[in-house]
């Protein structure tokens, strides 16, 4: 019997916000001083920067890796999520 390697056996993909929260925090407040806070940031700015990372126009190894497979809808959702959080 041949083993199936289709999508049913693929690892479930975590949400984009979960992926971002690892460095930027679920509350948008980064725990590392080298990582920017995103809470309350301008939504359009966040969207544009993520799209620049995604396209390779803004160089950053980790952000390029994270953003390159995100859809435009996922990028928009991340931008809206972090923009809606209260800044500190």
Written description of the protein model:
The structure is a single chain. With 88 residues, the protein is mostly helical. Helices cover 48% and strands 0% of the residues. The protein is built from 4 helices and no strands. α2 crosses α3 (61-67). It is globular.
Q: What topology does this entry show?
A:
Blueprint: H1 16-24, H2 43-55, H3 61-67, H4 72-84
Helix pairs in contact: 2-3, 2-4
Strand count, sense and barrel status of the largest sheet are: none
Overall pLDDT level: 88
Give the CA-based shape: globular
Q: What percentage of residues falls in helices of 4 or more residues?
A: 40-55%
- C-alpha Rg, in Å? 15 Å
Query: How many individual helices?
Result: 4
Strand-and-helix sequence, N→C?
Answer: HHHH
Distance between the termini: 57 Å
Spans of at least 5 consecutive residues whose pLDDT stays below 50 are none
Q: Proportion of β residues? A: under 5%
Number of E-state strands: 0
How would you classify the helix and strand content by structural class? mainly alpha
Summed up:
The chain is mainly alpha-helical.
Brief descriptors of the model:
4 helices; globular; mainly alpha; 88 residues; single chain
